Amino acid sequence: MSLNSTRVGFLGAGQMALAMAHGFVARGGVPGTNILAADPFAQARTRFEQEISGAKTTDNNQQVIDQSDVVILAVKPQMMADAAKSVGKLPEKCLLVSIAAGVSLNKLNSLFSTKRIIRVMPNTPCLVGLSACAFSAAEGTLDQDITLTKSLLEATGIALQVPEKQLDAVTGLSGSGPAFVYMMIEAMSDAGVRQGLPRSVALQLAAQTVKGAAEMVLVTGQHPATLKDNVTSPGGTTIAGVHELENKGFRGAIIDAISAAAARSKELGQD
């Protein structure tokens, strides 16, 4: 099935649903008119229709199920059981794609009584086509389901297939990771202001520095430690800053933050 003929539905029209829909339309070739989202909140439905040209919304989950080829479960993990109760038997043509952290394929299968399920952990940079997604497919999922899902996700960035047991780690790393990077950018900007830079200048320099450094890792394929060493001259400014980061436990704090997020993902799956 080509993307321009795929009908995509969302159960939930929140921020992540919006970000993914933007990517599907802007870069994936899915017409906005092929997108339907259900949400109980009128404000969310209005915003979705305003931001995704041609898309329609409803407060009826069953309508989305009946009219979509791919249904993306964009509800909170704690609301998944309620979402399942709101719909009847799924049509054979319907592929379920869940972006709910921690909710296992087995749990989704028991809730929705279907084997065509793919779990995805996206992140919000899909809004600008730079998402880092990972996904796992249930055993009953068809090869064409995997191909279609990967094509949709790659319209928003990169999409890597991993074993399901690794998805909690993915949630902590790339799912929650943007928040940690935003905090670092904010801190770098604050430091620039403290040193006398105008806020607008400091923020642009901080954000571009993070973006450029990330691109260097991806393009060169070099280990981050090697790239760090390339910037770190003997007795220079960078090693002075690196020394401070080591003293303050910078790397340990990042590892702990991602580990905590991954652990919370596991907890959500047990609720």
Show the helix and strand layout.
Layout: E1 8-11, H1 15-27, E2 35-38, H2 42-51, E3 56-58, H3 61-67, E4 70-73, H4 80-85, E5 95-98, H5 105-112, E6 117-121, E7 131-137, H6 143-154, E8 157-161, H7 167-175, H8 177-194, H9 199-220, H10 224-231, H11 237-247, H12 250-270
Parallel strand pairs: 1-2, 1-4, 2-3, 4-5, 5-6, 7-8
Antiparallel strand pairs: 6-7
Describe this structure in words.
Helix content is 54%, strand content 13%. With 271 residues, it is an alpha/beta fold. Strands 3-2-1-4-5-6-7-8 form an eight-stranded mixed sheet, with helices on both faces. Helix 4 links the parallel strand 4 (70-73) and strand 5 (95-98). Helix 7 crosses helix 12 and helix 8 packs across helix 9 (199-220). It is elongated.
Quick rundown:
The protein is an alpha/beta fold.
Sequence of strands across the biggest β-sheet: 3-2-1-4-5-6-7-8
Strand share of the residues? 5-15%
Q: Whole-number average pLDDT?
A: 93
Overall morphology:
elongated
The tally of strands reads 8
User: Count the helices. How many?
Assistant: 12
Distance between the termini: 36 Å
Strand and helix order: EHEHEHEHEHEEHEHHHHHH
Secondary-structure-based class equals alpha/beta
CA radius of gyration: 21 Å
Biggest beta sheet attributes: 8 strands, mixed
Multimeric organization: single chain
Q: Considering DSSP H and I runs of 4 or more, what fraction of the residues is helical?
A: 40-55%
Jot down its keywords.
single chain; alpha/beta; eight-stranded mixed beta sheet; 8 strands
